[in-house]
Amino acid sequence: KDMPVYHPDVRAFEVKDADGKHLAVFYTDYFPRAGKRAGAWMYNFREAYVQDGKEVRPIVYNVANFTKPTADTPSLLTIDEVQTLFHEFGHALHGMLTRCHYPSVSGTSVARDFVELPSQINEHWATHPEVLKLYAKHYQTGEVIPDSLIAKMEAASKFNQGFATTEFLAAAILDMRWHEIDEVEEYDVRQFEKEVAQSVGLIDEITYRYRSTYFSHIFTNDYCAGYYSYIWAEVLDADAFDAFKEHGIFDPATAKAFRENILEKGGSEDPMKLYRQFRGAEPNPDALLRNRGLK
Ligand SMILES: [Zn+2]
To answer: Which residue, among 96, 123, 114, 111, has the nearest Cα to 264 in the 3D structure?
Structure first.
């Protein structure tokens, strides 16, 4: 309670391991205010690293713009906000549990197509019936969320996934095709987009979710040819969460394996090597297809 914070809405926590050893300091800054950037994100005030044989532990924060409590109601989060909270907390765990020598590879400093695994897997807990029953209670009556509502949420999550998946993949493939070009020529952008669409059999009813001439992910940021990473991370998180479903979503041994092989390692090793160490195999895309109701 006496840790300094930069705004009264900010809360600070000392995070300790099961044996009481200090792991990290974690700040939450969850509510909107004048001048605050929109959206939600995780970052570090200090990375984790080892210096002169001594472990320096990280200082991590989550920022969001959730529904603020009022005088007579607590902060009532929409399900999207809950998923955002779990998502960013997954990044925070990646940052807080890391054990790496160099700050440049510690925590979330991993390959772009691997960084969303710890965050997206956490979203599976957010809406799992066992977890919903722990926190999704009516704020006035205390009534636990009914099974009928959970079933509706589950059904709604499968809506239009055929369209969404195809639309996303078309965009990811177009992105890669641009980056496969190795000769400098005059390109007719519209024609190129059309040829790629035809080559993958995209039906006329589905168009790209962006156009090449303005979509910044294609040529700027550090995304180049990396738009696929969102769905690849979903292949990983769906398959990884299957490991928890197989052994129980609160199974300590599975959690320990995930922590030691994924969350502690940062970018210090090849992501697929880390994944195989956790799962015993490469990810199987079936889990993603099942989650989207496509299998
Ligand atoms: Zn994320």
So the answer is: 96
The C-alpha atoms of residue 136 and residue 140 are separated, in whole angstroms, by 12
Identify residues whose C-beta is under 5 A from ligand 1, the ion. 119
CA distance 30 to 61: 10
Identify the residue whose tokens are 């005030």. 45
Query: For residue 208, which amino acid is it?
Result: Y
* Residue with tokens 């995209």, as numbered in its chain: 202
Catalytic (active-site) positions: 88
269: left (phi over 0), alpha (psi -120 to 50) or beta: beta
Ligand 1: distance of its center to the CA of 118 in Å? Answer: 8
- Ligand 1 centre and the CA of 232: distance in Å? 13
Distances (CA, A) of 119 to 61, 115, 213, 288: 14, 8, 30, 16
Cβ-proximal residues to 91 (8 Å cutoff; 6+ apart), any chain: 42, 62, 108, 115, 118, 119
Dihedral (CA of 205, 210, 212, 213) sign: positive
Residue 262 tokens read as 């994924």
Cα Rg of the chain (Å, integer): 21
CB 56 within 8 A of CB 48: yes
Centroid of ligand 1 to alpha carbon of 259 (angstroms) = 18
Beta-carbon-side half-sphere exposure of residue 217 (alpha carbons within 13 Å): 16
Each residue's pLDDT tens digit, 174-226: 999 999 999 888 889 999 999 999 999 999 889 898 889 888 777 776 778 88
The string of pLDDT tens digits covering residues 16-70 is 999 999 999 999 999 999 999 999 999 999 999 999 999 999 999 999 999 999 9
